[in-house]
Amino acid sequence: MSFETPVLENPVSNFSPGEKPTWELYSKCVHCGLCLDNCPTYRALGTEMDSPRGRIYQMLQVDAGRLALADSFVTHIDRCLGCMNCQTACPSGVQYGHLLESTRAQIEENYPRPWLQRTIRKHFYAKVLPSFAKLSSTAKLVRFYQQSGLQSLARSTGLLKLLGVAELDALSPRIEKDFSFADLGKVFPAEGTRRGRVAMLIGCVASVAFAELNRATIRVLACNGIEVCIPKAQSCCGALHAHAGWLELARAQARKNIDAMLSREFDAIVTNAAGCGATMKEYAALLEHDPEYAERAKQFVAKVRDISEYLAEVGLVPPKRKVNQRVTYSDPCHLAHAQGIRKPPRELLKAIGAEVVEMPRADTCCGSAGVYNIVQNELSMKILDEKMEFVEMVEPQIIATANVGCMIQLAAGAKRKGLNAEVVHVVELLDRAY
Ligand code: SF4
Ligand code: SF4
């Protein structure tokens, strides 16, 4: 791939009119560079074009018609994890998330990706993710591959290595037998005196690969006196769509979830996935120009809570047992950087008796980032290996986190590094304690 940056003669924006970054967003960047050391892709590659500052500069150049919206630009934007580490580090208040999402929407609209890539993306984002029925049938096929011996055969014969997909295969989540979709429409009562009533998002990929985590979340809430409803008409949260530039599809998911879950009956709308929570908290921004949904989106956002945030708010019922193990907590980017939630998960771990040991740079990205570890596998593994060096320094028995994507990635990282540490969600440890 060529990385020359064509300079155009009569500058006309290379972004189409409508949804694109605004001058106000670009101009917040004063090029100080204070974000660079916090950017995982800059740390891994050392190139300015793969830093937050460099990416913002390129966006502006494309918008000003001085740089083509072509391979080079798309490559540097595709390499961005969307981890928001830069947003936290920036003293100037750059809203990098908004810049990135609208730039990716421009790329989807104006850049012709290769046919196969386009077809796969369209099928995944437009057909599979928005439909729990299609997701369920796809997951059943993957489970058959995993359980029938085909996967073991492909691994042991070296076929996966030959095809160059061994790393990707190692990152594919284990599909569970009973999906969370079976719980749609159900209500799980609180144990003892009822202290609250919540709607819970079960998630798309989480429903097939982390259904047991969803059940553990319901049990933990019940033990805390919270009644849990799983609204039937809920949908995927739209995070993967929004991060890939499919903003209209993300809006469609947002509207479905608002219709399904915004009700006076619920004290909160709870999720155990940091990525989903961060996106649901963005619904007001996503739908600000929709006259029918703008106000309801604000009300929805006011009720969204990460599970750790919600338990901290209502106060944890003391557990029956202690988890007397050495635990290090890895902040999911979409919890720490996008939602500013760092203390509650650590407090929950301490409340169940865990010995919490802080690794250096606990809030640096693990390289998971939705489907990033699949589509940018090599770079993702480089970022993961650095993260695992920090983990190794504190010799944990358990690596706890609060996002399903991070769990898969950290488990792969522990295996690569030969670490004998279990990777769990904070909620799973709470479940053990109850
Ligand atoms: S979102 Fe993450 S990867 Fe992208 S520029 Fe910011 S820090 Fe770097
Ligand atoms: S820290 Fe903020 S203002 Fe400074 S270069 Fe990075 S994005 Fe720009």
Concise summary:
The protein is α/β, with parallel strands linked by helices. 51% of the residues lie in helices and 7% in strands.
Structural account:
The chain is 51% helix and 7% strand. It is built from 25 helices and nine strands. The termini are far apart. It is globular. The longest helix has 17 residues, at 377-393. The protein has helices spanning 23-27, 40-45, 52-63, 71-78, 85-89, 96-110, 115-128, 132-147, 150-156, 159-162, 166-171, 205-209, 211-223, 239-244, 247-261, 274-280, 283-286, 294-303, 307-314, 333-336, 343-351, 372-375, 377-393, 404-417, 426-433, and strands at residues 187-188, 196-200, 226-229, 268-271, 304-306, 326-329, 355-356, 398-401, 422-425. Strands 1-3-2-4-5 form a five-stranded mixed β-sheet. Mean pLDDT is 91; it is low at 1-6. α19 crosses α21 (343-351). It is α/β, with parallel strands linked by helices and 434 residues long. Bound molecules: iron/sulfur cluster (2 copies).
Task: Give the topology.
Layout: H1 23-27, H2 40-45, H3 52-63, H4 71-78, H5 85-89, H6 96-110, H7 115-128, H8 132-147, H9 150-156, H10 159-162, H11 166-171, E1 187-188, E2 196-200, H12 205-209, H13 211-223, E3 226-229, H14 239-244, H15 247-261, E4 268-271, H16 274-280, H17 283-286, H18 294-303, E5 304-306, H19 307-314, E6 326-329, H20 333-336, H21 343-351, E7 355-356, H22 372-375, H23 377-393, E8 398-401, H24 404-417, E9 422-425, H25 426-433
Parallel strand pairs: 2-3, 2-4, 4-5, 6-7, 6-8, 8-9
Antiparallel strand pairs: 1-3
Helix pairs in contact: 13-25, 19-21, 23-24
One iron/sulfur cluster binds at residues 38-41, 52, 55, 80-86, 96.
